[in-house]
Design a protein that fits this description.
The chain contains 11 helices and 4 strands. With 227 residues, the protein is mainly α. Helix 7 (145-155) packs antiparallel against helix 8. The termini are far apart.
Length: 227
């Protein structure tokens, strides 16, 4: 069974149970399970998630910037085919990120939870009494556009324009793919970190009914022009 034919219950195959969260995050694009992601697989992966041809072509910037860091796990010489090696994907981890993945690509849940506790501006309404504050704090966690902008600004470190740019592109892509009611929800983002969300989106988009209804696309943009 190849990765592209995983069953719909999203259980990680036993052969992949020893992978890090970051390796699982990118496994969706490794369509033949050979631990190598080609530029063509990246393009087809974005298309399977519902991104446009233009956006998916833009996704080819990923191997342009991240192929060589992962190649360093195997050779000092760049890969002429710009392939990404998933067994050394942690070497492509950039600065100015959230730190939710550690230097080995493992998931750090306490930092993930802390990100929502600190950055979710909807948790506390200072205009309400303490009883309403408790109710708000018990709501489902999410991040709006302004929260993501503040999160990106908080994580920027000095003299790291590459990290700033990569983080901005990643959050922009995340919002386009996941937003619901203008916000990125905690459970969706958690599933994106371990990669399981990508399989769910692909399978829901293959259904004959409405399929995956979250995200923001050309239809939303054109509809907004007429509102």
């Amino acid at each position: 069974m190849t990765l592209s034919t995983w069953p719909n219950d999203f259980d990680i195959p036993h052969a992949m149970s020893n992978l890090t969260a970051l390796q699982l995050h990118v496994a969706f694009w490794d369509t033949n399970g050979d631990s190598i992601i080609t530029p063509l697989e990246i393009y087809h992966g974005f298309r399977a998630l519902g991104f446009s041809i233009i956006f998916s072509l833009g996704g080819l910037l990923i191997p342009l910037f991240f192929s060589y860091p992962t190649t360093l796990g195997h050779s000092w010489f760049p890969d002429p085919l710009l392939r990404i090696y998933t067994d050394s994907i942690h070497k492509a981890k950039h600065g100015s990120d959230t730190g939710v993945y550690d230097s080995d690509g493992r998931f750090r849940p306490w930092l993930f939870d802390e990100m929502f506790e600190k950055m979710d501006s909807s948790l506390v309404d200072e205009n309400q009494g303490s009883e309403n504050k408790t109710r708000v704090r018990n709501k489902e966690r999410s991040l709006g556009v302004s929260d993501l902008v503040h999160l990106h600004a908080r994580n920027r470190v000095a003299a790291d324009p590459a990290g700033w740019s990569f983080a901005a592109m990643e959050w922009w892509t995340t919002w386009l793919l996941l937003q619901r009611d203008g916000r990125v929800w905690k459970e969706d983002l958690r599933a994106m970190y371990d990669g399981t969300l990508f399989w769910r989106i692909r399978d829901e988009r293959m259904k004959k009914d409405d399929g995956w209804t979250q995200g923001y696309g050309w239809r939303d943009w054109t509809d907004a022009l007429w509102d």
